[in-house]
Design a protein that fits this description.
alpha/beta, globular, 247 residues, seven-stranded mixed β-sheet
């Protein structure tokens, strides 16, 4: 018969305690409320691209903010109008609007703006960052990607990082999701939030985005879905469908 030494008993007890601690830590992480920041080039981009996920995060009690690169004013539509639309959309989604202070159509990506943008995220301390896909025809969409990505790197890659799509073909290009969120149950909420941007021809753009949602639903085996790409160096499991049932 093999004799069990005092050292091996102590080692076993230590391993068991570590396992219990890890299990408790995982449970606490799963049940605590998250800070979710979703970047968009303009008011309306996060709503169209992932308004369903926003609604599901909020329904779980998480703190969600939509961080717009600019106020969206263009031509005869002023900033006050666009910000009022964004405020209404965020109220529908139960999210908060935030602004990075740049100008619509005049995005600047340089060391000064990288630093200013990082200050916003440092103050928010997000657990989840979701932003626009870098291969996009709109320069403001590419700019919000660059600013979010730089901040994520410099903040130590601590937040989960995902990318979303908008108006595929017209804006987003070459997007292949790694993750999906079923939005069938919250489609009416997403629709209302998108239509809150009344000056932005929602009949046209919501029809286009619905076609994308139907296709992503077909891909993922649901009726309607939003697709996301998770960065390979990001932790996963923090989209709203992954979090349900853990609380």
């Amino acid at each position: 018969m093999n004799r069990i030494s005092r050292r091996s008993l102590l080692a076993s007890a230590s391993l068991a305690a570590s396992a219990r601690g890890a299990g408790q830590s995982a449970t606490q992480s799963a049940t605590r409320k998250l800070k979710v920041i979703i970047g968009g080039g303009h008011p309306g981009d996060p709503e169209y691209g992932c308004g369903g996920a926003v609604s599901r995060y909020a329904a779980l009690g998480h703190d969600v903010a939509l961080l717009y690169l600019n106020r969206g004013d263009w031509g005869d539509v002023g900033a006050e109008v666009r910000m009022a639309e964004a405020k209404k959309a965020c109220e529908i989604l139960k999210a908060r609007p935030l602004y990075a202070g740049q100008r619509n159509g005049h995005a600047i990506v340089d060391p000064e703006h990288y630093a200013d943008f990082r200050k916003i995220l440092d103050a928010e301390r997000p657990d989840v960052l979701i932003t626009q896909w870098p291969i996009d025809n709109h320069a403001d969409h590419r700019a919000i990607f660059a600013l979010v990505y730089d901040a994520w790197i410099r903040m130590g890659r601590k937040a989960a990082l995902y990318f979303y799509e908008v108006s595929d073909g017209e804006d987003t290009q070459m997007f292949t999701p790694s993750d999906y969120v079923d939005i069938a149950a919250v489609e009416s909420v997403k629709r209302a939030a998108c239509y809150a941007h009344a000056t932005q021809t929602p009949d046209r753009y919501y029809a286009l985005q619905t076609a994308v949602s139907r296709f992503r639903g077909f891909e993922s085996g649901t009726k309607l879905a939003e697709g996301f790409v998770r960065h390979a160096q990001s932790r996963g499991g923090l989209l709203p469908g992954d979090l349900e049932g853990r609380a």
